[in-house]
């Protein structure tokens, strides 16, 4: 399957956070409006509509609902095949299990 670049400037005109300049995504994720909205929030630094989850059920409920929770106000995250993944410019990367990744204050939904 050929991956497509989603350029940041296709989402926002003058983003305060301009790195990475693009994301490499599958055609399906390239069109995913929930992912686009999450990336807009990250790159515009607008986290007002987001809250910290109160528990892990709430966090994983967001994954099941097709949303992309934000990790550390920097990464869109997704749950694919039972793995939590973080979106970087070159694609998805597995999130290692650590005390930091299990701290609910590091997540926004």
What can you tell me about this protein's structure?
Strand 5 and strand 6 form a beta hairpin. It is globular and about 35 Å long. Helix content is 27%, strand content 26%. The chain has 109 residues and is an alpha+beta fold. The longest helix is centred in the middle third of the chain and has 12 residues, at 33-44. The protein is built from four helices and seven strands, in the order βαβαααβββββ. The termini are far apart. The model has no long low-confidence stretch (mean pLDDT 96). The protein has helices at 8-11, 27-30, 33-44, 56-64; strands spanning 4-7, 22-25, 70-71, 75-80, 83-88, 91-94, 107-108. A five-stranded antiparallel beta sheet has the order 6-5-4-3-7. Strands 1-2 form a two-stranded antiparallel ribbon.
Low-confidence spans = none
Integer average pLDDT: 96
Q: Please provide the count of β strands.
A: 7
**How would you write the strand order of the largest sheet?**
6-5-4-3-7
Strand content: 25-35%
Radius of gyration: 13 Å
Query: N-to-C terminal Cα separation, in Å?
Result: 30 Å
Helix share, percent: 25-40%
Main structural class? alpha+beta
User: H/E element string?
Assistant: EHEHHHEEEEE
Largest sheet: 5 strands, antiparallel
Instruction: Give the overall shape.
Output: globular
């Amino acid at each position: 399957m050929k991956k497509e670049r989603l350029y940041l400037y296709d989402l926002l005109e003058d983003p305060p956070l301009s790195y990475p300049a693009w994301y490499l995504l599958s055609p399906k994720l390239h069109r995913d409006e929930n992912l686009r909205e999450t990336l807009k929030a990250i790159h515009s630094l607008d986290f007002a509509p987001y809250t910290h989850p109160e528990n892990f059920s709430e966090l994983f409920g967001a994954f099941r609902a097709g949303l992309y929770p934000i990790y550390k106000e920097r990464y869109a995250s997704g749950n694919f095949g039972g793995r939590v993944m973080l979106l970087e410019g070159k694609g998805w990367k597995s999130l290692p299990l650590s005390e930091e990744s299990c701290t609910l204050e590091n997540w926004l939904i």
